[in-house]
Amino acid sequence: MRHRPRPHSRNALRSSRRRGAQQATQRDDPLERVVQALQRTWQTIGPDVLRAKEEEGMEPICDADEVRDCVPDYVDDCGDDKLAARAFHKLSPDEQDALLRKAFPLNRYGW
């Protein structure tokens, strides 16, 4: 009888479980869901925004303030999470700004 090696070590399995628990916690955290919806919104509208800039002869780069300014207008339609979008709109402007800064920490976005 041949010995079959185990596909995963115990440590890899523990690490995998821990990673799964962290992901589940992030999915359940309402503010993390809002951040993810904001990021999905930019992933959806970003290419169109950058392409429009290119067509106008501009550099296809948006600074962070431009991104943070346009994303909230489209999070309901493009964020793929209606509850997160609703939660975002219920927040105060300062709380919205904090989540937008968390979602878009870079200075510039483009290709």
Layout of helices and strands:
Layout: H1 10-28, H2 30-55, E1 61-63, H3 64-78, H4 82-90, H5 93-103, E2 108-110
Antiparallel strand pairs: 1-2
Task: Give the tags.
111 residues; mainly alpha; two-stranded antiparallel sheet; 72% helix; globular
The structural class is mainly alpha
* Span of the ends, CA to CA: 56 Å
Main sheet, how many strands, which sense, barrel?
2 strands, antiparallel
The number of distinct structural domains comes to 1
Uncertain segments of ≥5 residues (pLDDT<50)?
Answer: none
The tally of helices reads: 5
The amount of helix comes to: over 70%
E-strand count: 2
**Rounded mean pLDDT score:** 86
Strand order of the largest sheet: 1-2
Strand content: 5-15%
* Elements, N to C (H/E): HHEHHHE
Q: What is the alpha-carbon Rg in Å? A: 19 Å
* Global shape: globular
What does this structure look like?
It is built from 5 helices and 2 strands; from the N terminus they run H-H-E-H-H-H-E. It has one domain (about 30-110). It has about 110 residues and is mainly α. Strands 1-2 form a two-stranded antiparallel sheet. Helix 2 packs across helix 3 (about 65-80), helix 2 packs across helix 5 and helix 3 (about 65-80) packs across helix 4. The model has no long low-confidence stretch (mean pLDDT about 85).
Could you provide a short overview of the structure?
The chain is mainly alpha-helical. It has helices spanning 10-28, 30-55, 64-78, 82-90, 93-103, and strands spanning 61-63, 108-110.
